[in-house]
Amino acid sequence: MSDTIFRGLVWNMVVGISQVRLYSIGHESVVVAAERVRALLDDLPDGPRTIMVVKDDLVFNNTLFRESGMHGVKLVRLLGAKGVSRVEFLQGVTTEEIRRLFADVAAAKDPPGLYAHIRLGRVELGTAAPGADADLADAAFHAEQQARVQAVYSQISPFRDLPTTGIEEVVTTFLLTFRRGANVLRMLSPVRTHSEHTYTHAINVSILAMALAESLGLKDESVQAIGVGGLLHDVGKLMIPKEILHKPGKLSDEEFGTIAKHPLYGAAYLARVEGLTPLAVLVALEHHRKFDTSGYPVLRDTGRRQHAASQIVTIADFYDALRSHRPYRRSLSMSEVLGIMHKESGTVFNPGLLARFTQLMLKAAAEA
């Protein structure tokens, strides 16, 4: 369904833009192409309607289409010439707005205009271009992702629904950055201030979990779902009193018991979010259960093993937590963290996944 709609959108956008150049915005062929684009958009369920250009590929609703045909190649070129790499069609978009978009893209000089129900932008990926300052490129990537994740987290509330579009776009950016050959260690965000920890940890866990999932040869949909789970695994902590969550000293048994409820809070909250991958709910619930199920929360079904996605996020979560500097302890080196993790192989961590993760980290360190 989405493949058919995607190809129909690409075909009719290219036709509409090309016909505007030959005739005018009011020509019948332009009107027909715009009407077909709007009809195709109306056939989609509620949610994102976004076309992104990433290098020479097109991404539709966070799905990468490597083979989009000659019309896909032409659309990439047409949008690129106007400096546009992201087109989002909002609910309520009109045929008139789509025709104006065609005309603006077809125009020789004028930049695209503003529309009530169409948003244009650029997709920024990590890793520096040849000859560029890699440190500056990394810093820009980190700042961009942190701002986007912070915007997502700012909307998390027990009394408000969480829009999934922003989450999926962040995760898609990570996946496409991997595909450009980015080093996973350079993608990780450093924690500069205490207030940044929530967002940078979420970003890093998502990146590490996706890198491990990608190394296992999982399909894009599974890698993205695990990335979403990593990004949201700790949302339950936002429901914990800050004086407990950020206490610099040792927690009392009662305080630890309060924090230990965050997987339940997070899973309950995410279960109400429409359109969110079910794996995110599972990961939020299970990321502290441990491979041998000796962790928390204790579930009624005591024989139920930790899901593979949760096992992946558990590894990513533990690694980033110990690699990050916190007010009450120094950050540990990669070798120190991996050494600690291997002592818990078979209890906290899945031995096979931990071995693969270790290989992944050592290879990335050697190439960084």
Total helices: the number is 16
Average pLDDT level = 85
**Compute the gyration radius: what is it?**
23 Å
Total strand count, please? 5
Secondary-structure blueprint of this entry?
Layout: H1 2-22, H2 28-42, E1 50-54, E2 57-60, E3 63-65, H3 69-81, E4 86-89, H4 95-106, E5 118-121, H5 134-153, H6 165-179, H7 184-187, H8 197-215, H9 220-232, H10 242-245, H11 253-259, H12 262-270, H13 278-286, H14 308-323, H15 334-343, H16 351-367
Antiparallel strand pairs: 1-2, 1-4, 2-3, 4-5
Helix pairs in contact: 1-2, 1-3, 1-4, 2-4, 5-8, 6-8, 6-9, 8-9, 8-14, 9-13, 12-13, 13-14, 14-15, 15-16
Plain-language structure description:
By secondary structure, this protein is mainly alpha-helical. The chain has two domains: 2-121, no CATH class; 134-367, Hypothetical protein af1432. The chain is built from 16 helices and five strands. It has helices at 2-22, 28-42, 69-81, 95-106, 134-153, 165-179, 184-187, 197-215, 220-232, 242-245, 253-259, 262-270, 278-286, 308-323, 334-343, 351-367, and strands spanning 50-54, 57-60, 63-65, 86-89, 118-121. It has a five-stranded antiparallel beta sheet, with helices on one face. Strand 1 (50-54) and strand 2 (57-60) form a beta hairpin. The longest helix is centred in the N-terminal third of the chain and has 21 residues, at 2-22. The chain is elongated. It starts with a helix and ends with a helix.
